[in-house]
Amino acid sequence: MQAQTLGAALVGKLDRPSAIDCRMIEAVARTSGVSPLRQFAEILGLNRHDTALGPYEYHRYQVYRPDLSWTEKRSFVGRKGSTRLNLRLAPPGLSQMRGFLSDKLAFTGLMTHLGLPTTRVQAAFGTGRSFGALKTLRCEADIERFLTNEARFPLFGKPAQLQAGLGAVWIDTIDRRLGTARLGNGRTVGLRRLVSEIAGHATGGYLFQDVVDQHSDLVEMSGGRTLSTLRIVTVVAEADQPQVLYAVWRLPPPDAMIDDFWQDQSLMANVDIASGQLGHLRQGKGPETEWRTSHPVHGTPVTGRNLPFWNEAAALAVSAHAVVPASGILGWGIAIGPEGPVLIECNENTSHGIYQLATGRGLLNATFSAAFDKVDARNARMRAARKP
């Protein structure tokens, strides 16, 4: 067997378009009956400082839908609007853990030390950073030696400062005789090429972790072993007591190594935070959006089913947030294993587009805005308490 040579071994993605897409405007006009002139007018009217909703996001989130009132349309936020909200609710002057929590090594080490269930790191690569007592790899030869002789498979690798899954890889096995690596998406690549790519994505360090086993219910519903994680967003509205704001379950496409929704054929479902019940599955964006009750590939029913260990997963997110209550809002990546939930990562600048896609509803709705006002008031009290 020869290693494939086309395409990168690690996960990568295209940049988001920012300009107005004339073909998208035509498609929306054709499928939804919203004229190009009205689309232009709404795009201009909705691109405010607080929401920063751009043309691409206007179409991606289907904000053009005729059934939405103008108030409902104004509740959608773009990527920049999502970041501005996070900075407003967790300002750097109050939340001094920013950056630390998004660092996968620092986050995993802290949560492991505190006894919260999280991923297990086998080794870490970095040319200058210290990794404490972890097995440390300092050069490409160290990485190759580790993967060939010491690693336990399957193995998941990711940059310590991972964003949107970029630079991640699932490695099923290494063939020492052929010098190849079998990846979680079914591809086979040259081992030295893989090692070289990993070294190129390790500016802040690179982690090699055990692959987390999924609960059998999630394997059945998602149709594969690739991890389908929960994004649980928590806020601290008052009395330093975190609470769950919303939760979304992400299902990866076939043969994917990660579950980030920018990938084609990805699915997601909103989670009722009171019961853990799954809503409709969303596939696609903009006029290509489809809402389903069953998985489109294997037909397994999803909508209406309850996630296993939901109460425990919500409690884990709340417990983790309570470790750093100064941050007014945080996003948590949580997997559901056979024995319960496992912390995967923390996002101090969590993207709220995932909620808007999973629900078809804007983030700045009346319910959430009331919670955000409480976070603002709580932050004001914290600032006043810190003044001399």
Main structural class: alpha+beta
The CATH topology of the largest domain is D-amino Acid Aminotransferase, Chain A, domain 1
Nearest-integer average pLDDT: 90
How much of the sequence is in beta strands?
Answer: 15-25%
Number of strands: 14
Enumerate the spans where pLDDT stays under 50 for 5 or more consecutive residues. 1-7
Under the CATH scheme, the architecture of the largest domain is 2-Layer Sandwich
Number of helical segments with 4 or more residues: 12
CATH superfamily of the largest domain: ATP-grasp fold, B domain
What's the short version?
The chain is of the alpha+beta class and 388 residues long. It has twelve helices and 14 strands. Strand 13 (329-337) and strand 14 (340-347) form a beta hairpin.
Polypeptide structure, described:
There is one protein chain. It is built from twelve helices and 14 strands. It has about 400 residues and is of the alpha+beta class. The protein has two domains: about 90-105 and about 215-385, D-amino Acid Aminotransferase, Chain A, domain 1; about 120-210, Dna Ligase, domain 1. A hairpin with a 2-residue loop joins strand 13 and strand 14 (about 340-345). Helix 7 crosses helix 8. The radius of gyration is 22 Å and the shape is globular. Mean pLDDT is about 90; it is low at about 1-5.
